[in-house]
Design brief:
Layout (H helix, E strand, L loop, with lengths): L4 E11 L3 E9 L8 H4 L4 E9 L11 E7 H20 L1
Length: 91
């Protein structure tokens, strides 16, 4: 993995000709603790994303995959979802 990439592991939920649906489970550092049920501080989030299906890949439902994206895509998402709407509201 390069320094300008973000990677998450996930599981394939569904594969269609257009999109592949992947489930990513983000957990905090204490999610693996044996006492997480008692303290109430553990945090685990399930994120479901849809990615364009690669027609040449041989993935199956239930396979573990790594989802990798460039950090610049995250900045692009911030611009599209926050900065541009703010400018429109200001106008």
């Amino acid at each position: 993995m390069a320094a300008n990439e973000i990677s998450h592991s996930g599981k394939i939920l569904e594969i269609t000709p257009e999109y592949t649906t992947v489930e990513i489970i983000s957990s905090s550092a204490c999610a693996a603790c044996h006492a997480k049920g008692l303290c109430g501080l553990s945090e685990e989030k399930v994120k479901i994303i849809s990615l364009p299906t690669d027609p040449y890949a041989s993935y199956n439902t239930g396979d573990e995959v790594d989802v990798v994206m460039k950090k610049s895509m995250g900045l692009k998402a911030v611009w599209i979802s926050y900065v541009i709407p703010l400018f429109i509201l200001m106008i």
